[in-house]
Structure formats: C-alpha cells, structure tokens
Amino acid sequence: MPGIIIDRDRCKGCETCVEACPQQIIAMSKEINAKGYFYARVDDPFRCLGCRICAIVCPDVAIEVLSEGVQYSLFEY
Ligand code: SF4
Ligand code: SF4
Description:
two-stranded antiparallel sheet; 77 residues; Alpha-Beta Plaits
C-alpha cells in the first residue's frame, strides 16, 4: 500500500489535491492547522493508487507519496 504523507502545517486548504485525486480519497479536515486553514487528509489510504497526482498538483509541496510503482489494477474503468 502506498504511503501518503501530508504536512498539514504546509497546507493552505486550496483543495486542489481533493479535486485531482482519481480515487477521491482526499478530503478536508474539520480541524485547522497552525496557519488557520482546514488542511487536507487522506480518508481511505487503502484505496490509494500511488499515482502521485496529489503531490504533483499541490502548490505548496505539502504531499509526499511513498510508493513503488502505480497500482493501475485498482482503477475502475
Ligand atoms: S497518490 Fe494518487 S490515488 Fe493516492 S491520494 Fe494521491 S492522487 Fe489519490
Ligand atoms: S493541494 Fe496542497 S495546499 Fe492544497 S489542499 Fe492539498 S495539500 Fe493543501
């Protein structure tokens, strides 16, 4: 299973990663971070593909994906 690390205090709550995730497993927290923003968190890490799209689109480089390859078999076409 890929590991998703979101540095919540770097997050500015823009929700770009929420929109970009093909599995729709990123959501915004109901709590705020040190900057006063609602931060992104991964709801269901077991469904993560390790595609790194969330990390690529994050303008604040707040997301790190630890993965070996991409689990395309999990896509539901
Ligand atoms: S690596 Fe891909 S599937 Fe996993 S949380 Fe990021 S965008 Fe979603
Ligand atoms: S794209 Fe980055 S800054 Fe925007 S909500 Fe996601 S983690 Fe936070």
